[in-house]
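so im writing up the methods section and need the U-box domain-containing protein record in one place, dumping it here so i stop losing it
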Amino acid sequence: DVRLRAAREIRRLTKTSAKTRVYLAAAGVIPPLVLMLKSSCHDSREAALLAVLNLAVGNERNKVKIVKSGAVAPLVDLLQTGSTLRESAAAALYTLSAAPSNKPVIGSSGAIPLLVEMLTSGSVQGKVDAVMALYNLSTLPENRPPILAARPVPPLLLLLKSCKKSGNVADKATSLLESLSAFEDARASIGKVEGGILTLVEVLEDGSSKSREHAVGTLLALCQSDRSTYRDAILDEGAIPGLLELTVQGTPRAQRMAHTLLELLRESPARSSSAGGGGGGGGGGGGAIDGMECEVGGGGGGEEEEEITARKMLSEMVQLSMEQSMRHLQQRALFCRAPSSVSS
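--- predicted struct ---
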């Protein structure tokens, strides 16, 4: 078949040459390749898909042309197949979703539930491409409700648990979780998933600067939404050491959020709601933290006194974290999984 040979040649020529991608797109190869995506012949669809994928890489204009030529619908159809084309279709949607004008088209195409399904049932590379595509789509706020409706939180946490915490996959997974944590359904799901909060705490300790920022943002969203529910759960997973480190070494945004979360963790809801203080301790891991000094930054003592108070607060928080360490290690041993080959 002449078209099959042509598609394979286009794929070969565009594999490494950015100039060739520009030239061939200008020559009009994109519309016929998109038509081939609808072919009943597996080889033709595969050749066209791989050629389209190469044309889209690193070229914003080509990404837009491909979507305007009608590529999204056949790509969604390919996501529903059981063949290797499913993985390539996910990679194509990941690449195409990087263009801002493509995000609403892909988001309304029916691709989102299929990408979420791939987080569970795809190959390692398929899961990576799916989370990257979902992240790209989530940067458009109107795509977040349909992403949430597809119930992505459990597979995202499972992927985050098994991947390298400082890698690009973790960055995108935690960013997606943080954006979804604005919704009550997502927050509840994080709290219900076994080891979900622990996984976010592990990112606080071992993640990149980006993933740590998104992890603390997610934990803060939980605690701000319902402190009585999430405060002790976060404390019990040993979050304090990572948060303290983040107040010094995190991005400016992460530092601010870590400070805010530490303040929320410092007093139990029962204590903070009592008029003027004085009342009882919180339950769980929070009791030891309730008695901490509250005058940090307060008036009257000068810089030296503030520094002493801050040191005292730090010492008390570190002591609390040490008291929790055994439970934290036991939880880690329970939920830890064998290392995955997802490393980026």
